[in-house]
Write a structure and sequence with these properties.
Two copies of one chain form a homodimer. With about 350 residues, chain A is α/β, with parallel strands linked by helices. Chain A folds into two domains: about 230 residues, 3-Layer(aba) Sandwich (Aspartate Aminotransferase, domain 2); about 100 residues, Aspartate Aminotransferase, domain 1, CATH 3.90.1150.10. Chain A is about 45% helix and about 15% strand. Chain A is built from twelve helices and 13 strands. The longest helix of chain A is centred in the last third of the chain and has 27 residues. The first copy, chain A, starts with a strand and ends with a helix.
């Protein structure tokens, strides 16, 4: 029996534009190899920084390219905070970020993300009562792991709180460009471009293995962050940056994005219809219009036991508790992009059976 | 006036095998793109790990590939040590390592590296008096910045001290394969393969920009270090590892190494003859048989003033103090690989003139 993986948020094999990337790689080395294969400044390959800067309507020195965006977040945590400082995250949130924050010795204050979206009342109460929150990490668009989108009203309210209580907002946006229907709200960066720290990457748009992520930084942080990056790894691989740049410059992204949106959009539809058809009434789930994930809440704290039952049925789940500071026993993340429709239908049917035997 | 750079240890433009790397990059993406452009285990691309393991006569799980070896060292410092711990380094040593150690909050105990080589008497005294040294970082072969090679006797004595006083040895070996004449001593890793941590990279053998460095770890550290790497950046770029592997598998390294040794060997000869011809008697310098650097000791602590005088003559030097925990005003690092013979002759002549006007 072949296992069905509802585990990590990886793009499917068929999404990687192998031939185009092979040609881009060859061409950039022939054309610019002597420069991109040498030591170089830590902020990354300038043409790609410039292109991102234009798209963001920001100056190029505010863009730092790294080896994935997670590592840039780790650098940010070290540059902006001290061990013992308090940070806030959505709960559930991206598990790897919780790991980095714990490793940095930070106190993590969870902001509940429930059926009605992000609970900002509780956050405002805490801030009003003197809680010193230094930084908030949020994924407003097609959140990992819930798939949720933050409403415009909440975006504005979060920004207002940041300004009143003086904390950094780190907006992680890897899924924002993967909208399969409906209209986007402005990003937090769009709303306050001077002070929002925005992270993103090409991992979900081209492929993860190139490890090309980036941050748009407030002007006053660029030197510190770039310096820390240089001290850590001298410079990221410009070859990888140049391959991405060539892919964009050759106009390959437009068609590729259409292809991805079609493919993933169909899989999302299939996922939502399978949930409608199979899931018991007492479960609830999100209905995203993009991204990689649907978030499912069970009626009980049965998640950990479910994991084991799933294994016996050839179904692999992630432990919901990994996405929570506390709790998570009633949460399951359902990534849909790397499964075909047959796997999605079969997987959800099996999942429903073990939830409600 | 074109400046002559005696600054950082970068390979020359003409050393980068651009066409071969372009072909390797295209071929690995065509052949293995779907795998190497996906998320993957943090220890790096297995075929290259296996190849290094064979060369080192170690099991593959002891090899971790990173994004340059400096970043692996940073991970090691975090995995093995706590803020406040004491580490020892040669003095002078690689400046970037001092930066990482200071950033990690480590106490740095300098071991003087003078005209007679490494002072192990002083180290043994300190250890005997109860100094708790947790880790020693050393570059035994063609040391950066001095060009020195540690004698076999001192290698054995250092190993004996490590075993008696229970500290880690981190041996950084990026220059070891670049010997232009004479015979190598066994590496520290060769002498005690089970417990030495050896770092190396392809930055000086193929090119720096691919950022392919690695560590050979003692068996009991592999899980901790790999886990920390995964938490930091998920995985390094397998594309870069695969390009290096293909370059090696295609048998291109043998000829390339012959080419590099000829080129750099001539430049080293030119550097040594220029020093002999021009330098005042009271200066002393090393006479390495390989690597990237000659280390020069001035008769006075005139280094910082010299830096400024050099600028006015179109000569760029690194500040010797960067390589020292304390002092360094009498030290100059002279990298020779990226300068042609004319630049070397002219540069050393000018340097001699400003040292002894």
């Amino acid at each position: 029996m072949k296992s069905i993986f509802f585990t990590r948020g990886v793009p499917p094999r068929e999404s990687i534009p192998v031939n185009a990337l092979a040609e881009c790689a060859r061409a950039v080395i022939i054309d610019e190899g002597i420069d991109i294969l040498q030591y170089a400044p830590a902020a990354g390959y300038s043409p790609l920084r410039e292109l991102i800067a234009q798209k963001k309507n920001a100056s190029m020195d505010r863009i730092i390219l790294g080896q994935g965006s997670l590592q840039i977040l780790d650098i940010l945590l070290h540059c902006l905070l001290h061990s013992g400082d308090t940070v806030a995250v959505e709960q559930p949130t991206y598990d790897r970020v919780l790991t980095l924050m714990r490793r940095a010795g930070l106190r993590i204050c969870p902001m509940n993300l429930g059926r009605d979206g992000l609970d900002l009342d509780n956050l405002e109460n805490k801030l009003g009562n003197g809680e010193q929150i230094r930084l908030i990490y949020t994924i407003p668009d097609f959140q990992n792991p819930s798939g949720m989108v933050m409403t415009l009203e909440k975006r504005k309210r979060l920004i207002d709180l940041a300004s009143r209580f003086n904390f950094y907002i780190v907006e992680d946006s890897p899924y924002r460009d993967l909208r399969y229907e409906g209209e986007a709200f402005p990003s937090l960066f769009d709303l306050v471009p001077d002070t929002t720290i925005q992270l993103s990457s090409f991992s979900k748009l081209i492929c993860p293995g190139l490890r090309v992520g980036y941050a748009v930084l407030p002007q006053n942080l660029t030197k510190t962050v770039t310096h820390y990056a240089e001290d850590t790894y001298i410079n990221p691989s410009y070859l990888n940056h140049a391959i991405v740049y060539r892919f964009l410059q050759n106009g390959l992204m437009e068609d590729h994005l259409v292809f991805l949106k079609n493919l993933y959009g169909m899989r999302l539809k299939s996922m939502l219809s399978a949930l409608d058809k199979n899931m018991p009434d007492r479960c609830t789930w999100t209905h995203p219009q993009g991204g990689f994930f649907v978030g499912l809440w069970l009626a009980s704290n049965d998640g950990p036991a479910l994991l084991e039952r799933a294994e016996t049925q050839g179904l692999r789940l992630s432990d919901g508790r990994g996405f929570f500071v506390h709790a998570g026993e009633n949460f399951i993340r359902l990534p849909f992009c790397a499964l075909n429709e047959e796997e999605i239908q079969e997987g959800i049917k099996k999942l429903a059976q073990i939830i409600h035997p």
